[in-house]
Records
---
Amino acid sequence: MPQLFVEQLANVDFSYLCPDYGLVGETWLLDVCLQGKLDDQGMIFDFSNVKHEIKLVVEEFIDHKLLVPVNYEGLRVEKHLSSTEIWFTDRQQREIYCHSPTQGICEIDCMTINIAVVEQQLVTMVKKVLPANVTTIDLKLKIPETRHSYQYSHGLKKHEGACQHIAHGHRSDLKILNNKQISAEWENFWIEKLHRKYLADAKDIVKKHTKNNKLVYRFSYTASQGDYVLELGADQCYLIETETTVEYIAEHIFNQIISNDSVTDLSVRAYEGFHKGAIAS
């Protein structure tokens, strides 16, 4: 039976609550293969429909959202009319609280978020938009191949779209050149510094307090979709003095390096997920 495939149909950026690491940013790529009978056009499913309908289902489900493992014992969820509250305690007894408009949250029926369980839920959803001649769908999510990467979460309060969600994230590469040569020392320094951190504008902190002898930050802002709150340990955060767009992240790293090192021709290439980003030089 004939098959149709689309590689890298989409790349989805999101964060998830992890029992081991707390709040984690991630990027996955999507490959799709369909099997079925040919229709009157001699097609299994028109490529334009694959790119529109299947991609739309996947992106609306998880892209730029906070994925929550609803069966994890350290989780409590309360749903309101248009918002959701989440209390999460990881295995290191670190606590995370999030209040978000409901469209910023994605509940996954599992104890731990992983590719296999998300693929399974997506296949069920995608089947609903496929024509009857499609008999089998093979949907694969995968981590993009990069030189090396770090994972971060953030929220952009001024964004009109899904980037405003206070806890979404990315798996991102970082390239730093000094005098047109790769600076492995600075790359490793910043990757280690930002890995699995919540990157935030310091101005969004509305409260600092101590809980279980640890400093906790509460971030809050109002965006076009509603009110957002995120509270987590200061040791899980990295603060800058601007919005955390990739342009500002690249600029921040650039400024920090030139203030601490004698460089002649510095370039910072910061990625936001896969195949996109910003350069400060």
---
Amino acid sequence: MAKYTEEYNLKGDKKVIDNEKQTLLKEFKQWPIFVGQLDPAIWDKPVGEGKWAVRDVVSHILLWDQYFYEEAIKPISEDQPLTVRHLDFDTFNQNAREFAKSKTDDELINLTRANREQIVNAIREQSDENFEKVYQDAEGHPFAVKNYLRDFIWHDQHHRKQIEALMLTFSSK
């Protein structure tokens, strides 16, 4: 009886992990859909007083996606050490704003979609073990794929709320 229970729990755990992975990936895929539906008239509008323009926010997220793909998600997929490390956020974000100036809205939308799709596909193909495993980043800090997804879903939602508030303000004028 104990052996049956252990096998059942293992199968049940795999199903729970797979469901969590699919749920997180589904939510993580929402950002590029949202970005693709933005009104072109708001791209250069700030999301609040003293805040970045929508295009800067989109660039900020797409460059974080690119960074985490290259430095964490891809190395995990290739069974290589993670090279992700703590960055100076102010410098990174300023670079994102400069990058935004060099791209059209359509280019930012396409890059947002491509970067997110690359991450989603890589994570989808990873084993449940890799999804659950806690890795060490280049500075010895813990990094887990599922925690990364949770954190960046929150990050996406934070910026989405800012943009949605702008859209409400903009549409009421």
---
Amino acid sequence: MSEKINQQQIGAFLDALASKAPTPGGGSVAALSGAMAAGLVSMVCALTIGKKQFADIEEEVRGIYNQSEQLRQELLDLAQADIEVFERLSAAYKLPKTTEADAASRKAAIQTVTRQAADVPLRTARAASALLPLCASLATRCGRLVVSDVGVAALLARSTVQSALLNVEINLAALDDHLYVHEVRARIEDLTIGLAEETLGVTEIVRGRINQ
């Protein structure tokens, strides 16, 4: 698609997603899911800020809001970056391989862009994981009527991490740089350790407050 994601209407984006076009794909969807999670966190903060009953936590909630908005923009940018890096990778695969020199140049280009294609969803997963502490903090402080939105944000954030890391894995499988692959797998492990427990902690708080 020629239009950037932030310029598209949601219907147009979904039509493109459902078409035979290779982009947008799973990486962009993962990043957009994370951006929506961040948007929910921002919404709950916006509904909390300025209310008398939350005056004692307003400064903290403003801090959460600022962080969630930064993450929302970052994740939106990553959704677009995923499309752009896929297009560069497709172009690399179409490079000529008639001669040995051509083939070597093509292989080097593919390896370079594949590494970039692994980096984008890795950044997506890292940004989404940063939302979970914000959800945990907000879940105990926000109004009860919006606490379910915090739970949805946490579940979306976890899904974003898991989905983005699948896109990392498929690109790592095509890389010859074993040291880089090892380093990235270590980062993946760091991102997934405690992820389920952290999400469960938020949803338990949310359900507890729903059922008060």
---
Amino acid sequence: MTNNKNIIKPPLTPPYQGGGQDIKTPLLTKEGLGVVSSADTWNFSDSNISYSNEIIKWINEEVVRQISAGNNEPDWMLELRLKALKIFREKEMPSFWPDLSKLNLDEIYYYAKPEGAWAKKSWDDVPEDIKKTFDRLGIPEAEKASLAWVGAQYDSEVVYHSLKQELVDAGVIFDDTSIAVNKYPELIKKYFAKSIPLADHKFAALHYAVWSWWTFLYVPKGVKISEPLQSYFRMNKKSWGQFEHTIIIIEDEADAHYIEWCSAPKYDEASLHAGWVEIYVGKNAKMRYSSVENWSLDTYNLNTKRAIVEENWYMEWVWGNMWSWVTMLYPCSVLLGDNSKTDMLGLAFANANQNQDIWSKVIHIWKNTSSNILSKSLSKWGWISTYRWLIDIKKSAIWAVSKIDCDALLLDNKSVSDTIPLINVWNSSSTVWHEASAGKISEEELFYLQSRWISEEEATAMIVNWFLSPIMKELPLEYASEMNVLIAMEFEGGF
């Protein structure tokens, strides 16, 4: 394990100078999965989009009231936003995160509502310019691939939702969080901001002051959804801040799998993503949350996710992170009931000018709880990958079991990989295993593959894919295929 973060540091200016690479990525089209240039898919923006609200930079009470009024929110939500704004102004920047000194919050747009972007139930009703964007990203095709539903968010607004009729008949609710505040006020008020407090840290307060839309998912007792639920959000505007809020409620004996995919174009100016995920899983229930985050090198990705788990239930996190300049991804499971369990499986790729900072947290509260954390990270061209974990086993969590395995692969002689564990065990009956390893690609393995007429680039990609396979096999097929191609393209042209 290397420990020289004080030697190799991120640049003092954003990494946009000099332009980006033209990486080929897969695109789901009507003809199937084709490979196209990122300049034509993820790394494009739409200049023809018009917005229905006055767009100003920086955050103040006027902007907060504009967001609340635009969503026709009840008084209690506006009061919560204004309280959060006050906390945001008073709190200092977090000291435990990577350097954020170059993130100028005065130069961020906090609310932009695309013209005509009220959530549609039919893809045909989505405004044409926005529809073209998501057509290029394959969103309607994903729905045709037998997914349970598809949702799409564009800047501050959800523009499309689709839920299969049999799920509607079973009592499943999938709606925009901003709409759900009015349609399901008792449920929203019961769960909103209960797992992640307003004062958790400065960016938590900022999120709650300016959050906009996204996913409210409710699965009734006993309903088991066999197909995955999918959503996609796109950040289009330059110097944009996106603050979507997801609430997922899985009642007793229910089962669901939710997938998120994210992207943003490269603008050569910093953007901010601070999305929140709150998950509540009932007794004897099961929930899997998968995410693939493919932000541009302009983006600060500050993402907090937390699940509250009751007895005999299972919560699984699966994630993959690439491309953003600075990523701080902090999923957490709170094992609140006896015999509850969580798995956390994640991969991160720190390429040139990137800092990936991942922190998995599990809090064991009741007896016979268990957690399993598996992390894989890649670092290339002298950049930084940090993996932190917090295991907190309370005195009441007798016979708890936790296993942590963190593996880092360094792809050159300059990159940095740090593992920072924090383990608190407050009883004598619990068991914790933890292991961290860091290494380079074996010259012997490369020589063996090259002796079989495999190029160095292909051999390197094969070894990396094998290293990541425990995570990749847990992703849905279309997402695993996409990640494989993205990673393979990283090795074009050597090191």
